[in-house]
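User: Predict the complex with zinc ion.
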Amino acid sequence: MPEYQSLYRKYRSQTFGDLVGQDAASRALQGAIVSSRVAHAYLFSGSRGTGKTSAARLLAKAINCTGRLRDSAEPCNRCQSCLEMTAGSALDLIEIDAASNRGIDEIRDLREKVNLAPALGPFKVYIIDEAHMLTEPAFNALLKTLEEPPAHVVFILCTTDAQKIPLTVIGRCQQFVFRRHSEEQIVSRLTHIAREEKVQVDPEAMALIARTAQGSMRDAVGLLDQLVPLATGPISLDGARSLLGIADPRLLDSLLDHVLAGQAAEALAELNRVYAAGAELRQVVRGMMEGCRDRLVAALSRHDNVTARRLSGVLDALLHLDGEVRRHAEPRFLVEATLARLAVEAETGTAIDQVAPTLTPRATPAPSAPRATPAPSAPRSAPAPSAPPPPSREEQAAPVAGWSEVLEKLNRTVRAAYLDAQPEVDGATLVLWFRYGFHHKKAQEQSAQLMPHVREWLGDGVKVDYRLRENESAKPAARPASPEDDPFVREIVRRFDGRVTRVKEVSE
Ligand SMILES: [Zn+2]
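Assistant: Here is the predicted structure with zinc ion placed in the model:
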């Protein structure tokens, strides 16, 4: 029986034509090989699983291949050097894992060994994996070699974190950035592998694997590798989901709905269903993060900053939970506790992170209005008569939980009149601040439609005060021309490494 070989190793790119998705790097490297202008040092940076090490091995193989055609960079994969390189036994290819202790020792010896001539081919190639993990002395030793490299040596530093590589080292390297693979590229590669392996995988299941791998070809092929031996027949979407421990996104969506609506008991029951269906908790948290992020982008696109701030608070909590779940031995209770807390906070309107000042509705408790129950922590935000003057409008722009639910109950036309409103609960009065005179006027005309929902939220005694922000009403250009220009949107896009894909104009 031959030793089991993982699909990733089996299908590792053996030619530049096989190297998926890194066209720019691939073209540049091939050009250098064909014109014999290979540099002495390269830095391949990029996220994990994007093909850095595969490209490095390919480069090593190509420059030592004796069967290569004159005007092609492709290794022949048949000569002695190529065969040894593929098998991992080539003496002229030295791979150093900088993350291991041995790696440090190897760098230390490097200065002596580097001058020895290659065993077989014209070049001795050093691939330093996880190069950012090198210690300072190791970097110094490497730098000395890079300053006067022997003609027969090529260094390829691979890293997921180029910022940790000293500039002195980067300055000696030709740098290539390896981009994450697109879902299409991953699906196309997986389809090829599945065909070669004679396994049937539904296109939806392929797409799910590609999405789960988040741009890492290695992860995607690894997931397929887990599925193939477990599958008894064709791999379906549901089969892939349960084998990979991925929850049905519809269940996750409803779980998120319950959390945001403040329904803790329903949320926990839904979580139990998801868990019982075999979903892995890390994937559950990730799935909820994705759902939350989609809603956040939608809220930002319609300039609903109140909802957006609330969602970003929930997203923050989920991000934190994602980190914790990896470390915990019993993550289930952690997930339950966090979701329950978020739901309770959504219901009572307390701040998610307990840092941002929150305006808690302080309406008189009305038995007929279950949502009007004041939060236990209400005194925190209830200003005493001798309280200092309230902060400026901008600082007060904290979420008022419940307002977005009121908006959701209105019909489209009525809602449009209120989208511009910044709510503020001031005693038994709901103050609605408007930036535009047009909305300010329109909203008051629709007051009869709004009031029942406000009463349900804040109690029967509530009054609504419609106010226009004078200084800002004078400059209608205050709203950013496009959502991308909004500083809050920019921050979200930066933090989640995303982009605004769709802008929906809801008002006007
Ligand atoms: Zn060859």
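Confidence is low (pLDDT under 50) at residues 351-399, 472-481.
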